[in-house]
Amino acid sequence: MDDVYVGNAGVDGATNAGWLLGHFMPAGDPRHSTDVEVKWGVHPPGQARSRWATSERRTTLLVLVSGRFRLEFPDRTVVLASPGDYVVWGRGVDHSWYAEQESVVLAVRWPSVPGYRVDPPVVR
């Protein structure tokens, strides 16, 4: 059945920087979408976004699965410390992040648009 895809977020995400669903998947793949992007992010302690995301055109929901994960915004810092903690930010909100501990996060962004790929995260 070509309209059904079964996988494992950890395995599939490892081959695409954690991204499981979005415009970047091949056309015809059930994981291809211009409406939404989904990421299973596995981050070692000390890993940080390589640079701030600016001029954001998407809305994002980020949910902590495990660990301790810090989101930085121009006017505040948010720390996700308990499984299920989450933060939502809208279009136009610049941001960055830092894994205070080994962390797993689930990110959902919409819409899925090209032009936001950055260098791989760095470990500080």
UniProtKB/TrEMBL annotation:
SUPFAM superfamilies: RmlC-like cupins (SSF51182). It comes from the Bacteria. This is Signal peptidase I. It comes from Micromonospora halophytica.
